[in-house]
TrEMBL record:
Residues 128-223 form the Acyl-CoA oxidase/dehydrogenase middle domain. This is Acyl-CoA dehydrogenase. Pfam families: Acyl-CoA_dh_1, Acyl-CoA_dh_M, Acyl-CoA_dh_N. Belongs to the acyl-CoA dehydrogenase family. Keywords: FAD, Flavoprotein, Oxidoreductase. Its cofactor is FAD. InterPro entries: Acyl-CoA_DH_CS (IPR006089), Acyl-CoA_Oxase/DH_mid-dom (IPR006091), Acyl-CoA_Oxase/DH_mid-dom_sf (IPR046373), AcylCo_DH-like_C (IPR036250), AcylCo_DH/oxidase_C (IPR009075), AcylCoA_DH/ox_N (IPR013786), AcylCoA_DH/ox_N_sf (IPR037069), AcylCoA_DH/oxidase_NM_dom_sf (IPR009100). Residues 6-122 form the Acyl-CoA dehydrogenase/oxidase N-terminal domain. GO terms for molecular function: acyl-CoA dehydrogenase activity; flavin adenine dinucleotide binding.
Length: 392
């Protein structure tokens, strides 16, 4: 078994790294301070082809398949953006994983033709509205409703913490909604709601702990009417479709974490070689050196878990095996990222508490990695179930 990326994938990584260091890194701190979502950079990411890596050529994508390492390429792009700014990294992760992927997997030819070209080109963004005040990890508790009336879905309800949902680039949000009951249980379907639909409002953006340059809003729907043809996939399969989408998303969010760990190690090693105490660099002190050694181990282990899961996706691994690998990668990499930011901040000492140093931003940004795309607790539950344990 080879653990080396192909020359083509390594070249792609270098291309994305050059882009990130030139177009994102110099501005990330300012965007963070100003809570600014840089739509112009999103457009440049589109020009580079990052949103279309796994999309067919007929919609303007690169048409990369599993044999080409398509999903691995996406994870590499997310990782490299995450090395300089998690906000832009998660913008790509959500735009593809939660916006484009459901359309590719479940959309009709007409839906794909209508929405994908702009999404793939980076001219537009799509969100996925699942989470509600009482329905996050327990997504089946969805309260948003959609009722058919004269050939239209009438949507009422609200969503929260939805990425890419309220910017000037947002063209649609796919929402899960109750569309009836089957055997006494809620029937949950997925419905495409264009951003200009009357009755659909993206409320004021959140004031978040981190990811300040990412676009995140609560959403409300009051008699928002869309055509019946905006049903995504089969009626009543919205929850199952979302769960399948999340498996991919967990590997992708682990790739964000991987970029974070790499950045923390790079920053901490450089600082440990420059900062002196008692006449020598602090990197010569075992208390610092051993922590950085542990961080290197976490980085390598996280990278192997993420790349393995991505390779399994590309190879068409059995669903149950991929789901287990995705949860393992997500759990370990995201928790390691939070630890990495704590270690790096500690190495920087008092300077690590100052906003002028990027390590501070990484520290704030990292916590959500343990929550989004399924909390650490949910991942442990899924992994245990994969072992045959009937965990509730």
């Amino acid at each position: 078994m080879s653990f080396q990326l192909s020359p083509e994938l390594e070249q792609f990584r270098r291309t994305v790294r050059d882009f990130a260091e030139k177009e994102i890194a110099p501005h990330a701190a300012q965007w963070d301070r100003e809570h600014h979502f840089p739509t112009d950079v999103v457009a440049k990411m589109g020009d580079l082809g990052l949103f279309g890596l796994i999309a067919p050529e007929e919609y303007g994508g690169a048409g990369l398949t599993g044999e080409d390492g398509g999903f691995t390429s996406l994870c590499l792009a997310i990782e490299e953006l995450g090395r300089v700014d998690q906000s832009m990294s998660v913008t790509l992760e959500a735009a593809v994983g939660l916006g484009i992927t459901p359309l590719l997997a479940y959309g009709t030819p007409e839906q794909k033709e209508k929405w994908l070209p702009d999404l793939v080109a980076g001219r537009a963004l799509a969100g996925f509205g699942l989470t509600e005040a009482g329905a996050g990890s327990d997504a089946s508790a969805t309260r948003t409703k959609a009722v058919l009336d004269n050939g239209e879905w009438v949507v009422n309800g609200s969503k929260q913490f939805i990425t890419n949902s309220g910017s000037t680039l947002t063209s649609l949000v796919t929402v899960t909604a109750r569309t009836g009951e089957v055997d006494g249980r809620p029937e949950i379907s997925a419905i495409i709601v264009p951003s200009d639909t009357p009755g659909f409002v993206a409320e004021k953006a959140y004031d978040k702990l981190g990811w300040h340059a990412s676009d995140t809003h609560p959403l409300s729907f009051e008699d928002a009417r869309v055509p019946e043809a905006n049903l995504l996939g089969k009626r009543g399969r919205g929850y199952a479709q979302f769960l399948a989408t999340l498996d991919d998303g967990r590997v992708a969010i682990a790739a964000v974490a991987l970029g974070c760990i790499q950045a923390c190690l790079d920053m901490a090693v450089e600082y440990a070689g420059e900062r002196t105490t008692f006449g020598v660099p602090i990197g010569r002190k075992q208390g610092v050196a051993f922590q950085l050694a542990d961080l290197q181990v976490m980085l390598e282990a996280s990278r192997m878990l993420v790349y393995k899961a991505a390779a399994m996706k590309d190879a068409g691994a059995p669903k149950a095996e991929f789901k287990q690998a995705a949860s393992i990668a997500k759990l370990y990499a995201t928790e390691s990222a939070v630890t990495a930011t704590r270690i790096a901040t500690q190495v920087f000492g008092g300077y690590g508490f100052m906003e002028e140093y990027p390590v501070t931003r990484f520290y704030r940004d990292a916590k959500i990695l343990e929550i989004g795309e399924g909390t650490s607790e949910v991942q442990r539950m899924l992994i245990a179930r994969g072992l045959g344990l009937p965990v509730e």
